[in-house]
Amino acid sequence: MHTVIHQLKKLIGYSFICIILSACTNHSASFAYITNQGEHTVSVIDLQQQKVVKTITVDTAPVGVAVSSALKRAFITNVESASITVIDTASAQVIKHIPVKGSPVGIAIAPNNQALYVADWYGNRIMAIDPLTYQTIQSITVEKAPAGIVISPDSKTIYIAARDSNEIVALNAKDFSTIKRLAVGSHPFGISLSSDGSTLYSVNVYDNTVSIINTNTWQQQHVTVGDHPYCAVANPENTTLYVTNTLDESVSIIDVATASVTTTIDVGETPEGIAYDADNQQVLVANWGENNVTIIDANTNQVINTIPVGDKPRAFGQFILNTKE
User: How far apart are CA 153 and CA 218, in angstroms?
Assistant: First the structure.
């Protein structure tokens, strides 16, 4: 092997051969974990192959997703069986079902991988679970019907959409003390945070709006989108926001700087979960009513593919895992 490399160096130069070797050893891979509530499975999509490569049976009525590349785990909330399924993403195998009391819906893992946060919809509480031991670290009652949940980049703040209280609740992750309760639009459900943590997005279902919130000043702007919006995600630069509109079968694209909708893209029936694939510069949308996932090119804002998945896909949360192979 050393002789071959030495000969290649003579032929094409040292720098170029180093580039070849680096490319061979730093291959990245991206996978989407789509919860199929109607059939109690998770579809694993290889985003480079653009197809489902594995279907994993979980517990009853999976909804929420949180992934960790460092832990090589995908965590799935099962609302009807009151459990969290843990998937080893390296083997694509279920390794644990964590029982929880209540109805887990929203789920997020802290960027430092120290805690998994779960929103109990009917119990009006937030739980912190150790992602390695699966033990509950802390639990607190919050406002009514907590749904979407996201964690700040420094892992210090938990943001929750309290649907039936029409507000966002910010908690200190260390002791679960309340930092802020902020009134937003009617029935906030999905929430999203910019990659730098400076901007929080609340999707207000009954108002057909999105609240754009400055997390430093708590000032907010409201942007009107389509009918019954559900979830949102921003690109890594926080210049563009993508919002699913369940009753319009569309995605609204918002220019964040001007707080205005620039275009609307038709997708599948009843689009719900949405996530941004930074590796491949594309946006994925889970279409509940059509049992498929729409892929949008983030550079052209054009639909480039539709991938069939399981029955009633929701994919509520951060469902794209980017890894290095």
Answer: 17
